[in-house]
Amino acid sequence: MLTNMRVAAAEPTAPAQGCDTQQLQQTTGFEMRFDARLRNAVVGQRVQAPIVVRFPKNGAELHAATELRCEGLIPRGAHITQLQITQVTGLPRGVTWRSAKADLTFAGGESACFWLEGTPETVGQHTIEISSFGSGVYMGLSTTNRCTLRIHDIVVASR
Fold first, then answer.
1. How far apart (Å, rounded) are the C-alpha atoms in residues 130 and 86?
2. Which of 34, 157, 39, 151 is nearest to 88 (CA)?
3. What architecture is domain 7-157?
């Protein structure tokens, strides 16, 4: 169940609007690319910027990611099967979040595109956190853990 979230599935054209996930498919490990426009937002001025993420596919990649944390013991050799987003918090008033996937479920190692867009109404530094459940397998045992992806702060200045 999705809670406390302003989220919508993206139109099919969103990846063509600056969300290039193909580049990240060539990388190994967790990676996040954050659009610099989100550090220079201004109250009353529309902002639209992508965030591209390549999710980790194993415990070693997860442990190397400083922005992504999961509760519980996750061995380095664990295989991450999927992450399902459940909540997005910290958005400035007037800004919404959307994903290129309507079910908000991503395979371990998959690259994903998210959009932050809207007209910020409040000045300040806003820390976006994406909560999810991460599922994986280690030595034949399945487990699911709560995970949090901390997006770099969005900075909204006055006019």
1. 8
2. 151
3. Sandwich (2.60)
Locate tokens 């989220």: which residue?
Answer: 7
Q: Note the pLDDT tens digit of each residue in 142-159.
A: 999 999 998 877 889 988
Domain ranges of the chain: 7-157
Q: Which two tokens stand for residue 103?
A: 């079910």
Do 17 and 51 contact (CB within 8 A), yes or no?
no
**What is the value of pTM for the model shown?**
0.78
* Strands across the sheet containing 95-99: 7-9, 95-99, 111-118, 47-54, 31-34
Measure the CA angle with vertex 107, ends 27 and 127; round to 5°.
Answer: 75
Taking CA atoms, 91 is separated from 41, 118, 138, 141, 159, in Å, by 13, 10, 35, 36, 19
Q: Which residue has the tokens 């591209």?
A: 52
